[in-house]
Specification:
The chain is mainly α. It has helices spanning 9-16, 20-28, 47-60, 65-73, 83-110, 125-128, 185-188; strands spanning 7-8, 35-36, 42-44. It folds into 2 domains: 3-100, Multidrug-efflux Transporter Regulator, Chain: A, Domain 2 (Orthogonal Bundle); 111-180, no CATH class. Helix content is 39%, strand content 4%. Strands 1-3-2 form a 3-stranded antiparallel beta sheet. β2 and β3 (42-44) form a beta hairpin. It is elongated, with a radius of gyration of 26 Å. The termini are far apart.
């Protein structure tokens, strides 16, 4: 390998868009390996551009550092990854990415309502999660994690909307789950409200 084919850490930073400190961090983790010159300067192979670019993209996709390290460990050191190398990585991370996509969709759909976090600070939580019923299933955003408000209804599935549950003080039961609000006839016709 000729010195002309190697990149300084500054050149690698410019080519990947990563800071020098980030490249040094990845080097300490073994994701890239510098070659030392006779003057003890770091030099990197051109193939490290792709390794670091993958790490950058994988982070933005939500992969953990451990997942990135695992995948980069499968790539050859010293040569650019081939199409087959990338396809193998793609096949391995596809399921994890799909799960993240589904979680993002669910988060987007629930952000306007209650995620079952137990905060009880929003006016609407009194409707969706009164008395923090979702906490019965455990910590965290229960509705976002897949639990449903109706799983925690004290009244049970037979309770008819509009009637009162025993011990509720005459209040009607909460709506079943974080569903979208029904539009009134007025708002369906294009009016406000």
């Amino acid at each position: 390998m000729t010195p002309a084919s190697l990149l300084s850490i500054g050149e690698l930073s410019r080519r990947t868009g990563m800071s020098v400190s980030a490249i040094r961090f990845y080097e300490t983790r073994g994701l890239v390996k510098a070659i030392r010159t006779t003057g003890n300067q770091r030099r990197f192979m051109r193939s490290d551009i792709r390794r670091l670019s993958f790490a950058l993209i994988a982070q933005r996709l939500g992969l953990t550092l451990a997942e990135i390290e695992t995948e980069l460990a499968t790539l050859p050191q010293g040569r650019a990854p081939t199409r087959q190398d990338w396809q193998a990585i793609s096949g391995r991370i596809r399921g994890a990415l799909q799960a993240r996509i589904e979680m993002l969709h669910k988060t987007r759909d629930l952000l306007d309502s209650c995620i079952g976090c137990g905060c009880l600070s929003l006016d609407r939580c009194a409707l969706y999660n009164p008395n923090d019923r979702a906490a019965r299933a455990g910590a965290g955003p229960r509705f976002l994690l897949g639990d449903r408000a109706q799983d925690f209804d004290d009244a049970g599935p037979q309770q008819v909307r509009g009637s009162t549950a025993p011990g509720s003080g005459g209040r009607p039961p909460p709506p079943r789950g974080p569903t979208r609000r029904r539009q009134s006839r007025h708002s369906r016709r294009g009016g406000q409200g």
